[in-house]
């Protein structure tokens, strides 16, 4: 039987960096030949965090940790060094 479905299922979940910061993230799955790859992403303030993992728990732990690094420790707050490529700044941070 041929599968002709064009439906994509996306799961929503909460990412917590502390008691005052909670964000909505999404999980999607991609089926390869022998594996299921799970992707997770969340929009945090002015940026987006995404990762891959083997399970929902793995994705949740990674996104929680990255949110703490972003909000509490200011990772990527510095613009770092940039170079111009085709008249656009390319940031090397």
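-> sequence recovered:
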């Amino acid at each position: 039987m041929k599968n002709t479905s064009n439906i994509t299922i996306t799961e929503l979940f909460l990412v917590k960096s502390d008691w005052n910061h909670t964000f909505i993230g999404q999980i999607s799955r991609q089926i390869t030949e022998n594996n299921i790859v799970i992707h997770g992403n969340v929009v945090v303030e002015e940026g987006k965090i995404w990762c891959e993992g083997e399970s929902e728990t793995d994705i949740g732990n990674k996104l929680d940790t990255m949110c703490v690094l972003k909000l509490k420790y200011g990772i990527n707050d510095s613009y770092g060094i940039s170079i111009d490529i085709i008249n656009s700044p390319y940031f090397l941070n």
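The radius of gyration is 17 Å.
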